[in-house]
Amino acid sequence: MDDSIFEHEIRVGWGDCDPARIAYTGKLPMFALEAIEAWWEHHLGGGWYQMELDRGVGTPFVHMSLNFRSPVTPRHRLRCKVWPTRLGETSIGFRVEAFQDGTLCFEGDFVCVFAVPIELKKTPPPDDIRTIVEAQIRTGAGPSAAR
């Protein structure tokens, strides 16, 4: 795997699981969103709360697509690789690939729109955010392509 891609580790707990002893389906998008917020926190010094309250910019999701590859369990930490895939005039795309013990468990693509929170009106990303995101964009195959 590419060591330069941001990685967020999640401890999957017993309470995250269904009677089949695997993570509830609904938890997987939540894990992915947690990893995306951790990406923001890593690069901006704060997550969505700080972005909205301190910077006056929100990033509501307008698209999510997930492919399930292998069950997620509490046996190993879930390591989520996260990177931006595109930056438009008012939107940003993210890729998340989640692994346990080296096995790809799920992968997904997510799109957010930059918005003024109170008005729910699209807006371009602030210049400093644009600069940070542009430096991190990766197109093409990610770590799962090596499978």
Could you explain how this protein is built, in words?
The chain is built from three helices and seven strands. The protein is globular. A hairpin with a 4-residue loop joins β6 and β7. The protein has a five-stranded antiparallel beta sheet with strand order 1-3-4-5-2. Strands 6-7 form a two-stranded antiparallel ribbon. It has one domain: Thiol Ester Dehydrase, Chain A (Roll). With 147 residues, it is an alpha+beta fold. The longest helix has 18 residues. The mean pLDDT is 93.
**Quaternary state of the chains:** single chain
Count of discrete structural domains: 1
* Apparent shape: globular
| Sheet of most strands | 5 strands, antiparallel
CATH 2nd-level architecture: Roll
Average pLDDT, all residues: 93
Order of helices and strands: EHHEEEEEEH
Which structural class matches the secondary elements? alpha+beta
Instruction: Classify the fold: give the CATH topology.
Output: Thiol Ester Dehydrase, Chain A
CATH classification, class level? Alpha Beta
